[in-house]
Amino acid sequence: MLPASLSRIVRLNISNTKIKPIPLPVVETKTSPIKSNLNFKFPFELPPSVLSNHKYYYNIPKTVPVSAREDELPALPTDIKGIDSSAYRFLNRKKNTKTVPTLVSGKYFQLKFYPDDHLLCIARKSNIAYTFTNSSGGFVFNNAQLSEQFKSYNGKYKRHLFFNKVLSPLNSAVKRVLFRRIVKRGLFNSLHKYVQPENVESEISKVRGVYQFRLFVIPKNEQEKQEVQSAIDNAIEKILSGKLKLETPQVSPREKEEFRKSLRLYKSPGEKNVRGYSPKFPFLRK
Questions:
Q1: Interior angle at CA 128, CA 124 and CA 129, nearest 5
Q2: Can you state the angle between helices 222-241 and 200-207, rounded to 10 degrees?
Q3: Residue 42 phi/psi, 5° resolution?
Q4: Distance from the first to the final alpha carbon of the chain
Q5: Which residues pair with 105 in a beta bridge?
Q6: Could you tell me if 206 and 241 are in contact, meaning their C-beta atoms sit under 8 angstroms apart?
Q7: Confidence of residue 135 (pLDDT cuts 50, 70, 90)
Q8: Does 46 reside within a domain?
Q9: pLDDT in tens, 227-241
Q10: HSE-up of 185 (CA within 13 Å, CB side)?
């Protein structure tokens, strides 16, 4: 311990000493004011609001995408788009589809056609649209005959885990995507093969609508892919021949209104104000 006299001297020196504050460095944070070259006299002159920019976007001339042009064929396979997800509920009602003609029913798929004046067509995202279903689940080993034998087998290996596996390629998302690409390319090729350029205005009205494919067997090689192409060719020829009887089912005004309301018009709020916007459903009749 310090002697009493020395302790008193130390206390006096500390009390008489002035502590100088150490200057700290200035650090910019997220809340620091942002310097701007704009000279706004607040509160009399405010910067333009982001929401007010809709006037600018509305004045921009909007070009109609190829997929939404009624008098043109799709320029690329990707111009053939799908339908809104809410439309599948409409498709699942048999009374809405029973009068729709079947164009093709073969080994690989079944194809139905919904003409331009069908109620389903207001939910299409392109002039010529398509949709898929694999409700049948496809065939085990991608083969109808083997699938029947597999189901009828009742031997000693029936309880083996192998028999509980999903063995249809259509239960694989990758395989379904590959099949859809083949069919979309086939539909694109057939349209450009049979709709003559000089008669495109008169003939395109016949092929406008929604093509519904029900998938069965995935083509494995080039020969089978060509068989798929030939089947789609036959379907387009049937439509253009005019011999196909297309009946539009009678739908009550209430059902029409419910169907329209079920459509999801926008993916995100305010997308109409975005430059280059085009309607999600260009054929939605109000």
A1: 45
A2: 110
A3: -70, 140
A4: 96
A5: 110
A6: no
A7: low
A8: no
A9: 999 999 999 999 998
A10: 10
Assess if residue 237 is contained within a domain.
yes
Distance of CA 268 to the CA centre of its chain: 13
Q: CA dist 236 to 46, 106, 188, 193, 241, Å?
A: 60, 15, 11, 9, 9
258 inside domain: yes
Mean pLDDT of the chain: 75
Strand order in the sheet with 128-133: 102-105, 109-115, 209-215, 128-133
Query: Is residue 11 included in any domain, yes or no?
Result: no
Decide: 113 and 216 in contact? Cβ < 8 Å.
Answer: no
Per-residue pLDDT tens for 150-207? 667 677 767 766 666 666 677 778 888 888 999 999 999 999 999 987 777 788 889 9
Range of the domain at 186: 75-273
Number of domains in the chain: 1
CA distance 191 to 237: 9
Residues 6+ apart with CB under 8 A from 192: 73
Closest CA to 118 of 150, 90, 151: 90
Taking phi over 0 as left and psi of -120 to 50 as alpha, with beta for the rest, 120 belongs to: alpha
